[in-house]
Write a structure and sequence with these properties.
Elements (H helix, E strand, L loop, with lengths): L1 E6 L2 E7 L3 H7 L4 E4 L1 E2 L3 E5 L11 E4 L3 E5 L4 E5 L11 E13 L14 E6 L1
Antiparallel strand pairs: 1-2, 1-10, 2-9, 3-10, 4-5, 5-8, 6-9, 7-8, 7-9
């Protein structure tokens, strides 16, 4: 499954694995939300509220597409967050891993807090 994320300064696609959370998310697309930034992570609320899945992770690779169940939010880390140790991508808590961004995740550095973000099937 591929999704496209777009915001005023850019866009990127992501390839999602088939997981309960990714199926729930793609089932409500397209959506528009408001971006928030936390260190080198972009996150935004979605209308889905999945449960934490087995295999949820808190430390992930840059470019991981993750779902923060505590905030019903898609979390897109591209570098360290305020709670990272060194250069790792440490999310606010364990998150469901949905897939990976296609291309350079650092394009997310152009997202500003408050930007509208649209997510749709690619």
């Amino acid at each position: 499954m591929q999704i496209r994320l777009s915001w005023p300064a850019g866009h990127i696609t992501a390839t999602l694995d088939e997981t309960p959370t990714s199926k729930a998310l793609t089932g409500v697309l397209p959506i528009t939300s408001t971006a928030r930034t936390w260190g080198e992570e972009v996150y935004f609320e979605t209308p889905v509220s999945p449960a934490l899945e087995a295999g949820a992770q808190q430390v992930v690779e840059p470019g991981t597409v993750a779902f923060w169940t505590e905030g019903d939010a898609l979390a897109l880390p591209y570098g360290p967050t305020p709670i990272s140790r060194g250069d790792e991508c440490r999310l606010a808590g364990p998150c469901n891993v949905l897939g990976r961004l296609d291309g350079d995740p650092r394009v997310l550095a152009t997202v500003r807090s408050g930007d509208p973000v649209r997510v749709e099937l690619a």
